[in-house]
UniProtKB/TrEMBL annotation:
<dbReference type="Pfam" id="PF14040">
    <property type="entry name" value="DNase_NucA_NucB"/>
</dbReference>
<protein>
    <recommendedName>
        <fullName>Deoxyribonuclease NucA/NucB domain-containing protein</fullName>
    </recommendedName>
</protein>
<feature type="domain" description="Deoxyribonuclease NucA/NucB">
    <location>
        <begin position="377"/>
        <end position="454"/>
    </location>
</feature>
<dbReference type="InterPro" id="IPR029476">
    <property type="entry name" value="DNase_NucA_NucB"/>
</dbReference>
């Protein structure tokens, strides 16, 4: 009996020592039925910031699979090249809108000069503070700014049942924030990524290799996805990432030949972050983040008076463009009031029509750009229809006024194609000129391409106070 008690005490002490010296060790009550003397499993998953990180880690440690938890797992699979029609069909389903910051035009030498183009990029903390930044879809701030932050969790669970039951978890967790920068003037997109909030459950994992890269795949043309060799993948130990958790990547597109099918030489790529964890003596695992896309174009009509030209561009196009006017902007408040009345009170506008419905507002029928370069006849038809309507319905011509129309003559919803669902109003010539210059600049700054050639390209109009 005495020897039995000594043996029992020694066993308890051994179990306690094993628990204390082995991080994340869990003593199991008994060996599972049918289990081998050694049991292991390894998971590596991606999950958004708004998920319960601690619960996911615990569930993975207990052996639940990523599929059971509804998590991404493994390498992203790229599809074969697609047609522009297929891509545009997806673009037409975009729901998210974004705000555009653009200064008003400036009056110089008896004419209105539009603002110079400027980027409104995303800073790291700005991404983390925005709820959309922590989702699977990410946040498109505008057509040149994208970000997504998410957690990667690598879990290797190793259980041994002899000489006593014991399980050890070798885990690495980290947050990865990806920030994308589009370009107006180049077929190039750049990414910065930040690795932080790194946690390990075993000192051994500090020496694990962690390789991170931003991968891409062509969607329409073979040259849509090219990686700049000056920004290769970065591989360092976990401990080194803790000291310097930053990397960058540049991707670019080779423009296809200009054709009638694709006159603006559009190209698309999809991108994602690939992480590879390689601990010494443990399984290597790869995990990819969700995919997002970039649109490239070389539209020849991206020009802003008097001297700004943007022959190429790279944008994040999965968000609805919204052209914004303001009633408090003196340079063009008359035009803004006209557009607001047309969208909100179409029955009060000229020319009269029963059950009049004017498109353009958010949540309503969208507008599509009509480019005179490709469709000069249709553009002239819009202008001619507007002039004749103004002569008929607004014959009085106060000095220094012009006839303004909505929807714009530069859209496929203009007067010639509207079946009476349009509005005309006489406003000051200066206001009309400022609003027109502002519209032309916005087309180029947001890279709005022709809406008949590419039906997935559309926009809405918003009038702010």
């Amino acid at each position: 009996m005495y020897r039995k008690r000594i043996w029992e005490r020694m066993l308890v002490i051994a179990l306690l020592i094993a628990f204390l010296v082995t991080p994340s060790a869990e003593v199991e009550a008994k060996k599972p039925v049918g289990a081998d003397d050694k049991e292991t499993h390894t998971w590596f998953v991606y999950h958004p910031l708004d998920s319960d990180e601690e619960k996911i880690k615990q569930d993975l440690e207990r052996g639940k699979s990523p599929e059971e938890l509804g998590l991404l797992n493994g390498k992203a699979k790229s599809k074969s090249l697609r047609t522009l029609e297929e891509i545009q069909a997806g673009e037409a389903k975009k729901k998210t809108t974004y705000n555009v910051k653009m200064d008003p035009p400036v009056k110089t030498a008896d004419t209105w000069t539009p603002p110079r183009f400027r980027y409104d990029y995303i800073a790291k903390q700005e991404c983390l503070d925005n709820p959309a930044g922590g989702t699977l879809e990410g946040w498109i701030k505008n057509r040149y700014a994208f970000c997504r932050a998410g957690n990667f969790t690598y879990v290797h669970r190793e259980c041994r049942w002899l000489p006593f039951p014991r399980c050890t978890n070798y885990n690495v967790q980290y947050r990865l924030t990806l920030i994308g920068f589009g370009k107006n003037g180049q077929r190039e997109v750049e990414f910065d990524y930040y690795v932080d909030n790194i946690q390990v459950t075993h000192p051994r994992m500090n020496g694990a290799k962690l390789k991170i890269d931003v991968n891409c795949a062509s969607l329409v043309n073979p040259g849509d996805c090219r990686e700049d060799p000056s920004t290769p993948a970065v591989e360092k130990t976990v401990a080194q990432w803790k000291n310097h958790g930053f990397g960058t990547k540049k991707l670019y597109s080779i423009p296809p030949d200009r054709t009638d099918y694709n006159p603006d030489r559009l190209g698309y790529l999809e991108f994602w972050v690939r992480s590879v964890v390689s601990p010494s003596g443990l399984p290597t695992r790869t995990e990819d983040s969700p995919k997002e896309s970039v649109r490239f174009d070389s539209a020849p009509y991206m020009f802003v008076f008097p001297d700004q030209r943007f022959p190429h561009g790279a944008i994040f196009s999965k968000a609805k463009p919204v052209l914004q006017y303001s009633l408090s902007e003196p340079a063009m408040n008359e035009a803004a009031q006209h557009y607001k009345d047309a969208m909100e009170r179409p029955g009060s506008t000229v020319p009269p029509k029963a059950n009049k419905q004017i498109p353009g507002a958010e949540g309503d029928q969208a507008l599509h750009r009509l480019t005179p370069r490709y469709h000069p006849t249709e553009y002239r038809q819009n202008r001619t229809k507007t002039r004749s309507a103004c002569e008929k319905w607004l014959p009085d011509k106060p000095e220094n006024t012009e006839c303004d129309e909505f929807p714009f003559a530069s859209t496929w919803e203009g007067a010639a194609f509207a079946d009476g669902n349009f509005s005309i109003r006489r406003i000051s010539a200066e206001d009309n000129n400022a609003a027109g210059r502002w519209l032309a600049a916005w087309y180029a700054y947001d890279r709005i391409i022709d809406g008949k050639t590419y039906p997935g390209e559309f926009f809405h109009v918003r009038v702010n106070q």
